[in-house]
Fold:
Amino acid sequence: MAFNLTRRKFLQTASLAAASVPLSKVVSANTGVTKAPLDPKGTAGDKTVVGGICEMCFWRCQLVGKVRDGRLMKLEGNPKSIDNGIKICARGNAGVKLLYDVDRLKYPMKNVGKRGAPKWKRISWKEALDECGSKLKSTVDNYGAQGICVFPHGASAKYPMHYFERAVGTHNVSEASFFQCRGIRDTAYVATIGKAPGEKVDMPNTKVLFFIGDHLGENVHVSHIKQYIQGLQNGAKLIVADPRFSASAAKADIWVQIKPGTDTAYMLAIMNYLVKNNKYNKAFVEDHTEGFEEFAEAIKGWSLEKAAKECDIPAAQIKEVAEMLAANAPHVAIHPGRHVSWHGNDFQRERALACLTGILGAYYVKGGWVPPKGPKVKGVSWAKEDHGHKYNLNFNHEEDEKIYSNPPPGTPTELIRDCAISGKPYPIKSCVVWGQNPMQTIPNQQKMKDLFNAMDFVMCVDVMPTDVTAWADILLPEASYLERYDYIKKGTQWDLSKEHQQYIAARMPLVPAMFERKDQVYITNEIAKRMGHAEKIPVRTIEEMVDKSLASANLSIEKLKAEDGIHIQPGKDPYGIPEDFSVILYNDDLEDSGHPPAPTYKPVPGNPKGFARLLYGRAPVHTFNRSQNNVWLNNAMPDNPVWVNDEVAAKLGIIDGDTVGFVNSEGVKSRTTTTVKVTPGIRKDCVYMYHGYGSANPLLTTGVGTGVDDQSLITKLAVDPETGCHGMRNNFVKLIKDGKVLDIPA
Amino acid sequence: MQYGMIIDLERCVGCHACTIACRAEWEVPVPYQRNWVKRLGPTMTKDGMAATYYPGLCNHCDKPPCVDECPADLAEMTFKDAKTGKTKTMEVAATWKDPFDGTVQVDKERCLGCGACADACPYGARYVNPALADDNSDGKADKCTYCKPRIEEGLQPACVQTCITGARIFGDLTDPNSAVSKYVKNGAKGLEVKDGHIGPNSRYFGNKKDISLLFADYTPELADMGSVKRRAMMASMVKPAMRKAKDIGLLGLAGAMLVKGLSEDEKN
Structure:
């Protein structure tokens, strides 16, 4: 019998509602049974459907689908793309396995068990929406709009997030992409150059790439990786500071095996060396920076030797790096990073990166930080309304100023959780989770559970079950990125040295949504009607939202389809420093808020005796926890081996491939185990694992219990004083082997 | 001509796009694979700390040890040169090396599923998919075809098309002007077996420490041909008719549903 595994699994999930499976009508002589062709057909003859925008991660590559008899067989990069081109990564390629995942949410569900230990009952959309609408309305009626907190993530969460922020009027929104990821970077650069930096370094055309913890190669975003490799191919030197011999360190000219948490000290020494030795870019500093004298004075104590001691690296290597940067300035790419919520001192590190770029004059020049000039497309969403500061948790009413002076948009996560759990200064009684998995994005899982237990109502919207959906009262199934209109992606050609072009592409469905999955505009509008906001609804359908937005660029869904999914128009030269551009090296506003005006190193807590610092990072085949249940991606990297230094391993008596669990310095044990990777490529005082493994939800039949959930071990909270964002690398673990807790030798 | 593939480890970031694109293109079921990416290191080499990748696939060898071991009855096949239209007729078993493009291919209709070819391959580049068992076999051998059906349509191999850094380069190794030949001139080399010469045509290019790490870890040995031959002989002795009963046993629920569907069709 020729039923291959994928087809059998597909039949289980999709036979009822989906397109028919393309079986050829070959009948076995012996059994009279229809069997699949022995040789797969390949996708060359399949129908090409345009308009896909990937969302296996947030980079949003442009796709086409290969469709056979109504079934999406394969995803490819859109040949018209000037961004990712025909190339997509492992996750992008595995999108079809998300689409047809047997474990996907199919129907609205009501939890008739307990939060955290749910029993699911299928209900109608009407019942589900009535329940969400009445419960949320009741919260607003009894406690005010601030009684709702929202944890959104991803393209589909923007519209509902705007609804709750703008129309309903709650400040209590915590996006993981800001408070547990890049928010610190954005606000530190805003405080330095007036804008968020993205990852807009002109890598293909640079002479030196300078990475602090960036592990490109393990962290994969297609056009970004293209830029990185093109830079190296063009002869750029690569400097990587990382406690671990990362994928990038393996391609580096200089690997700086820095002690975790000391990066700012390292950069202060580099900057001080450049200033002291007159190796900074004087013309740029003269014309485009503010506060150089005060800045130079503030960092003058950072000798190479002082930093060498603090960072546990050779002074000569710091000098070598500084010299390499100076010799190639201004054509140096100081990468701003992406996930930067590490140690609770990260605003200062990001300020140091922005200032280092400044004194090297590496803004708006070839090979430096260069924002591409993209096309303008207006977003269409709920109308903005002013809801004042009265219920803004990040506002000190006595002092009449913000508590965290430089927060990213939303409200710092800990302020929301503390308020929700304590009921002070006001009650928060409903929680909306949309596309985020706060059990694994936010540190201290017990505190997250405490928040949910303090709620009158919890609703989750997602495409898949996750560890947080187990805490929902109502769980709603969303159409995936392959089944809905949605996000408008815009940008320029990936290599700034090539012909200047701009592109606009809108997400369009490659196949229709199956089962009872709905898009975010439908769900949000139906809830809004039930909460009494019918008259504020900005668009009736998601197509209308996309079409209205495209109209601002004289485009439409129809026009985009006729242009194979991507509109391309002439672009603009991005090089050249704007006249009013200024790098604020010494920021008086920060001083007024009680923070250091010049980048300042703040030491982080050291290792308790017998513990190693827990470091984590990206796996190239996964987007955090979201892709863990994907059968193809799970197979590619089924667990997250913990990196242990070879000398440490020898002392502990553990070898490569051993199975271990963990206990952290607060006594929290890992739920599961993983394997050991013994290597000289990590410092002795740390261990490292990929983030996002070890899901606890048994409804994830592939991903449950695979590897260890690093977030479960991150219980000790650190909060960045300027931004209110988390720092997640101040937690320490011991290994447990065969039930025995092993002390990490000093 | 001889098709070959270069893997440029200076460009490769180990992202697995190649392996997943292959699964989608050819519906390769987990846990089997036509190609793979293994992560090597970080480890200390004599040239310093190194970490790299082993993106592997069928080497479409000059002297493929898998082809010789196939026990299926020989059949006459006529091959055609896509460029010149020239033809050549040969007697081949269920797997062969194409006389014109140098690729190694499998005829699944005639494959016995014995696995002798998979055992003979020093690279582990073949697998037998038991889910494809039929009246004549216990399953079907499967492997990378260098995406021959795509090449014939004028497309790139799926792994090459999606490779995000352009680390995979495909072409004719006998054409001195091809990109792959240029890489070979610059030192790209295949993972040749220890103490033998089978001429792998998937070749690796990279810096000294990465290449030395790859070759130290993954230079294969030739398989024990004695056991391979025994397996092949056993397979050729088993009569296809013996499999009938087993075939029905393997049907399972999904198959039973289809049988029902078919018999209902007959009624109508």
